[in-house]
Amino acid sequence: MAHIAKKGNRYFVVAYGGINRATGGEKRDWSDGFATRKEAEREAAAIEKRKEDGDYRSPDRITLANYLNDRWLPLKKSQLSRSTFDSYRNNVRLHVAPRIGTIQLRQLQPEDLDTFYAELLVDGKLNGAGGGLAPKSVRNIHGMLRKALADAHRKGTVHRNVADLADPPKVRNGGAKDHQVWSADELRSFLGEIEDSGWFAPIYLSANTGMRRGELLGLTWRNVDLDKARLVVDQQLLSVGYEAQVGAPKTNTSRRTIDLDQRTVAVLRTWRRMQLEQQLGNGTRNDDDFVFTHPDGGPVHPDRFSKVWDQLVAEHGVRRIRLHDLRHTHASILLKANVPVKVVSERLGHSSPAFTMTVYQHVLPGMQADAAAAFGDAVFGDAQRQARE
Q1: Tens digit of pLDDT for each residue in 43-79?
Q2: Long-range CB contacts (within 8 A, 24+) of 158-161
Q3: Spatial separation of the C-alpha atoms in residues 260 and 110, rounded to whole Å
Q4: Which of 82, 260, 288, 364 could form a disulfide with 229 if both were Cys (CB 3.0 to 4.6 A apart)?
């Protein structure tokens, strides 16, 4: 049985760790200590349960992969959204376990993580094309490891959280400045090229609202009011373990109402009529009431939509941007048209106008130049304009 021992102001869990081969005596595994007896008792109970389940390993023999897969992830499953848990599990399976998973947890060093991050930046992609992961992706993996090791430190499994001492890659501020966006002319030309495509309606709505991929595919007709020209975002369709699942919006501010222009209303009315005709012709039903479905009434998988987007962009020979860059394109065009930042922020479902300004600060310098010229024209009139000419 594990028992509690107090030394100074700390409480330690002492568990039987087998026979010491060097001395022949019993080996005792000591935790790193807890601030309260209650915390130590909880850890002792957890150790006993792992022993009953045949899952117990001495702290000195637990590898990073053992800890993440057998202890940490199972506990986090009920605490995280399905998509977040799936991303954590995939990062452990695809990146952490193959590269540093065999390192014993207590022997893991900050330098191990630094080397791991550097390798991911060089050859972390697993799609067969080679190349490294984006700094943001590597930093996300670092964030997961930091949380996992913080839990291990709090429970006395490790002496310190080495992720706090590691140096993950820095992600430059500026958000969408590193992303490709289309001009208004490029967007109009592309939409004209795909007008006869079965994918025209969802792409058109995406471009004209800035909705995220999951929000678009999770949109239901009950949340679309074509008479009042508005829609409500209150769920999203996620790819979790390669399965499409309905989930809550990304953040609280992602729940929002988006106004539509009459051209977009007309596109949706046409699409609605085509969808109903398809269902009647095929004898199928759209039980989930999704706005965008396949002809058989089934939902459009998020990954499928992204692949179709890439195919359409390649087929029509336009400048390549990602599907998500339609959202950035929408925001950039609005800001360049002098739509107030607060309105753009609400339309995109951002947490605050300040966040929107940070993400799209690459657009602001040009807007400030226009503002400076407008002020000069207002005050000095013709003299200001003549000086510019």
Answers
A1: 778 777 766 766 666 666 789 999 999 889 999 998 9
A2: 158/32, 158/59, 158/105, 158/106, 158/108, 159/32, 159/106
A3: 51
A4: 260
Q: Which residue has the tokens 């490790």?
A: 158
Is pTM beyond 0.90? Reply is: no
Give the tens place of pLDDT for each residue, 273-299.
Answer: 999 998 888 888 888 899 999 988 889
Distance CA 214, CA 250 (A): 9
Handedness of CA 330, 332, 333, 339 (dihedral sign): positive
CB 55 within 8 A of CB 67: no
Where is average pLDDT lowest: 59-73, 169-183, 216-230?
Answer: 169-183
Instruction: Name the more confident of 5 and 90.
Output: 90
Structure tokens at 249: 């919006």
According to the model, what pLDDT value does residue 234 have? 95
Q: Which CATH class is domain 61-171?
A: mainly alpha
35-53: b or e for each residue (b if 16 or more CB lie within 10 Å)?
eeeebbbebbebbeeeeee
pLDDT of residue 172: 64
Number of Cβ atoms within 10 Å of the Cβ of 34: 21
Which three-class secondary structure state does DSSP give residue 245? strand
Residue 56: CB partners within 8 Å, gap ≥ 6?
15, 47, 50
What is residue 11's DSSP assignment? E
Can you give the residue ranges of every domain in the chain?
Answer: 1-56, 61-171, 178-365
Q: How far apart are CA 165 and CA 223, in angstroms?
A: 47
Cα distance between residue 155 and residue 21, in whole Å: 28
Please check whether residue 116 is in contact with residue 108, taking contact to mean a CB–CB distance below 8 angstroms: no
Q: 352 is written with which tokens? A: 């605050």
β-bridge partners, 7: 10
- For residue 181, how many C-alpha atoms fall within 13 Å in the half-sphere facing its CB? 22
> Which H or E element spans position 18?
strand 10-19
d(CA 302, CA 307): 9
Measured from the Cβ of residue 118, the count of other Cβ atoms closer than 10 Å reads 14
DSSP 80: S
Structure tokens belonging to residue 254: 């992602």
Place of tokens 């605490």: 79
Record the tokens describing residue 284, joined without a space.
């199928």
Name which of 161, 165, 167, 159 is nearest 139 in CA terms.
Answer: 167
Strands 256-259 and 230-233: antiparallel
Q: Which string of DSSP letters, residue by residue, matches 259-299? A: E--HHHHHHHHHHHHHHHHHHHHHT---TT-BSSB-TTSPB
Q: Which CATH code is given to the segment(s) 178-365?
A: 1.10.443.10
